[in-house]
Amino acid sequence: MNKLLTTASFNKFCLLIFFLGLALVSGVHISDSLAADPNAFNRLMKPKSERNPPPAKDGIHDPQNETTFVLQPPREQFSTLPTGKSGNYVDWVKALEEGKISPRYDLTDPSVEPVVMDLNIVREVKGSMPNVVYPHKQHTEWLDCSNCHPAIFIPQKGANNISMASIILGEKCGVCHGKVAFPIADCRRCHSSKKE
Amino acid sequence: MPHFHHQFTFTFHKLLISVCMALMIFPSTGNAEYGDVVINNYSDAAGMRPVIFPHWFHRVRFRCKVCHADLGFKFQAGGNKINMLKIIDGEYCGACHNGEIAWSVENCDLCHSAKPGTPTQVHESTLQKLIIGGKKDKKEAQ
Question: Second label for A166, Cα 20 to 30 Å away, from A185, B18, B75, B88?
Answer without folding.
Answer: B18
